[in-house]
Amino acid sequence: MSGSVWLPPGSRPDALPGIPRQRQRTPSWAQPDPVDELTERLDDFIAAAVHPDEIAALLESDGLSDDQIRERYGLKNSFALAETLYERVERRYPEPDGPAPDPWQTGLLGCLLRGVVFALPGLAYVLGAPLFTGPGDHGLPAGTVPLLAGALCGWTWNQGLAHRAYAWLGLGDRPAARRALLLGAPAGALLGSLVAVSFAGGSAPAVVAFAAGQSCYLAAATVLLVMGRERLLLLALAPMAAGAVWSLADPLPETAGPALLLGSLAAVAVLGLREVAPALKGGQGWTSGLVALLPFGAFGTLPAHRRPAAPRLTGSLPYALFGLATGVLVLYAALGDVLAGASAGAVAAPAAVALTLSMGPAEWLLYRFRSGSLAGLRSSSTPRDFRRTTVRTVVRCLAAYLAVLLALSLTASALWPHAPLPGGVRAAGLLLLGVVLWTGLLLQSFGAVTGATAVCCAAALVQTLLLVTRTGDPHVGAAVVYGTAAAVQAALVCHLLGRATAHR
Question: Which of 127, 360, 371, 472 makes a 20 to 30 Å CA pair with 389?
Fold first, then answer.
């Protein structure tokens, strides 16, 4: 028994055969918990789940039946196991690789360009001033009433038309948007011209012609802006704008002003027609082409079962009324003193210029708010945190817009002949009107146009009554009206946009 171990021939002494050992079975109480093993295996998925049902869906997709779950894990079914796993793992939501996608990123230059395009047509009144001859109207220069009436009609109609076209574009039907513009733009130009003629009274024929050209420009410019052709519109307005600026320093020949006006109008009209002309193509003659002009026409070549529901015509009405109300408020900001009987009211005209130019930065800040609210959705863990983040974003964007508006107002007043710098109640009223306009645009961008339209229409109506009845100081009255409207719309913004579901 004390001899060496016997080895078969050819074996090495250092290679001993394996010695069989008795298998020891681990008692059940010493085995690892199968639920812990499953938790460790699915840790990343469980940590990122927002509800136990997500884990239950994964378990069922892996083929685990309720009988297997009862046998292996001692739980009733997949939902009970999912709840157990959900409770054992702390929530960890992984951040996406790289920068988070942000569909609301846009360039500042494009928005500023739109603001300039909004303001440049105002230089046409510089070239057209020699045409406005005759007696004044309500203390205003000759021909102002038909021009303002036509402009208000154009703002109202084209705001609703633009919404209609954008609704078609949102449905992915660009031809239908072109048909809506091709039918609606000439109708709006005709309606604006008729309104201007009805308010012309004893105005000179040249004033009526200028008002008709204004209506045609508003219609054609709406087409170009909706179709994203701001640069073409800027190029078409450049000769007229350059001539108007030149005339401020050195008077132009008598025929140069009308020629520049007609040239720019013709260029804008041709460019607008060029944008919507494809709506006439592809038909079997003029009959089918005219049918294609209807804004509620067929969806191109899509089969009937794939055509989405057409946008309702009544859905564009609040947007049209919003355009009317904001147009009236801006009009009163520029001419409220004159309409109230004050002789020095024309000095408020730089306010209208500042408001018009500020629409470019206002649009960019709307995008910044949407981007900031999207970041708030990612970073906030509770509804209260998101509401607080949204309010801070609104305050920052609104403060930035008011700073831009004040700077533009001071610059315009400094450049405007004989215009004092705004201060006191006048400046406060302008800034409060800026709050009304920007919060109204913000609500409109989220589809809450009904509330914004109701507030702006009520403000325009109240200010009209104050001016007609000559109640109180026009500046104080305007500031009170604007302040009330701003407070109401700010409350609407906080109530609506503080909910995460509004940012879908």
Answer: 360
Q: What are phi and psi of 446, to 5 degrees?
A: -95, 10
Phi first, then psi, for residue 249 (nearest 5°) are: -95, -35
Neighbouring CB atoms inside 10 A of 333's CB total 24
How far apart are alpha carbons 240 and 261 in whole angstroms? Answer: 6
For 158-180, how does the pLDDT look when each residue is reduced to its tens digit (9 = 90+)? 999 999 999 999 888 888 889 89
Residue 101 DSSP symbol: P
pTM of the model: 0.77
**What 3-state class would DSSP assign to 293?**
coil
For residue 137, list its beta bridge partners: 140
Q: What angle do CA 190, 117, 210 make, to 5 degrees?
A: 35
Q: Using CA atoms, how far apart are residues 84 and 145, in angstroms rounded to an integer?
A: 75
Is residue 55 within 8 Å of residue 45, measured between CB atoms? yes
Please, what's the b/e burial string for 72-99 (b: 16 or more CB within 10 A of its CB; e: otherwise)?
Answer: ebebebbbbbbbbbbeebeeeeeeeeee
CA distance 234 to 268: 9
| Poorest-pLDDT segment among 106-110, 294-298, 419-423, 438-442 | 294-298
Query: CB neighbours of 274 closer than 8 A, spacing ≥ 6?
Result: none
Identify the residue whose tokens are 């859905």. 315
Q: State the amino acid at position 124 in one-letter form.
A: A
Contacts of 21 (CB under 8 A, 6+ apart): none
Mean pLDDT lowest among 86-90, 274-278, 288-292, 485-489 = 288-292
d(CA 456, CA 451): 9
Q: How far is CA 182 from CA 225, 269, 285, in A?
A: 14, 12, 17
Torsion from C-alpha of 6, 7, 13, 19, nearest 10 degrees:
-80
* Residue 140: strand pairing partners: 137
Q: Distance between CA 57 and CA 205 in Å, rounded?
A: 76
Encode 177-192: b = buried (16+ Cβ within 10 Å), e = exposed: bbbbbbbbbbebbebb
Residue 351 CA to residue 354 CA, distance in Å, equals: 5
Q: Is the pLDDT of residue 309 over 50?
A: yes
